[in-house]
Design goal:
globular, 37% helix, eight-stranded mixed beta sheet, binds S-adenosylmethionine, Rossmann fold, 19% strand, alpha/beta
């Protein structure tokens, strides 16, 4: 029984890091002509209303997209992130695009989207969000199993995005096993894994397990509203990227350092970028 609904969290500070990273990776993959396959294990509903009861109940988007919406002269990557959110709105911030729409709005005609979502309510919403997009296939299936059947893609070029809700604590181990299985089948693929920082010990264990997989070229990016990981709730979240495009780390560093020094300068927000495993 799945209880997590991304509608409560859409557009929050965690989505800001996740979707900026996603956008940057896809943009780099699209620099070469070969078809890019975007495979998402946990796609969510695709598009969210920020005036819904769920979004207003937490108001989380005010600490993410809400902070950027009226900010002029953003650096390039953040400006593209904002442009993508603007593309699903008409002047006023009312909708927030989930990762499937960020991908759909960044990818080209020759590319493909493979979107898995298990939730019975969110799956039809996902289908609706990409209904006129012939590049997209939606699967009402377990994303862990389905993604294994989708790699390697025919073009041998692609990004697998793993964005679970970590409702089940064993998911911290499951994502590492999943990355090992996927990487064995498709070693040249790009992989992005999102993680929440709720329990610092769990993140430490996740990082240790990733370093022990034998997989090379692993980077970690983390953005948080404060470094007090003992405070209740989620104060930070991160992205693990495997086979990262070569400019990604610098690009994220530039944009998130700028964010900390401007938009979040009156907060205790922090940013971290590190290489976990090299070449
Ligand atoms: N990636 C989305 C975005 O950024 O817009 C948000 C996804 S949300 C964090 C996680 C989603 O995974 C939920 O909608 C949940 O219903 C779904 N889910 C949970 N377990 C799943 C599984 N095994 N396979 C596919 N979807 C799953």
């Amino acid at each position: 029984m799945l209880s997590y609904r991304h509608a409560f969290h859409a557009g929050n500070f965690a989505d800001l890091l996740k979707h900026t990273t996603l956008l940057a990776i896809l943009k780099h993959l699209c620099e070469k002509p070969g078809a890019v396959h975007y495979i998402e294990t946990h796609a969510g509903a695709g598009k969210y209303r920020l005036d819904s009861q769920m979004a207003l109940k937490t108001g989380e988007f005010s600490q993410g997209i809400g902070k950027l919406w009226h900010t002029p002269q953003l650096p390039a990557l953040l400006a593209e992130y904002l442009n993508t959110v603007q593309a699903v709105n008409h002047g006023e911030l009312l909708f927030y695009p989930g990762s499937p729409l960020f991908a759909a709005l960044t990818l080209r005609q020759q590319d493909r989207l493979h979107l898995c979502e298990l939730h019975n309510t969110d799956f039809p919403l996902l289908q609706q969000s990409v209904q006129n997009d012939r590049r997209a296939s939606c699967y009402h299936e377990d994303g862990y199993k389905k993604s294994l059947a989708l790699v390697p893609p025919v073009s041998k070029r692609g990004l697998v995005m793993i964005d679970p809700s970590y409702e089940v604590k064993t998911e911290y181990q499951q994502v590492v096993t999943q990355l090992k299985l996927l990487h064995k089948r498709f070693a040249t693929g790009v992989y992005a894994l999102w993680y929440p920082v709720i329990d610092a010990a769990k993140v430490k264990e996740l990082v240790r397990a990733l370093k022990n997989t034998g997989i090379k070229r692993i980077q970690r990016f983390e953005f948080g509203l404060n470094q007090n990981h003992d405070a209740a709730g989620m104060n930070a979240s991160g992205m693990i990227v495997i086979n990262s495009p070569w400019r990604l780390k610098q690009e994220l560093e530039d944009n998130f350092t700028w964010l900390l020094n401007s938009v979040y300068s009156d907060t205790e927000a922090y940013w971290l970028a590190e290489e976990l495993v090299g070449e």
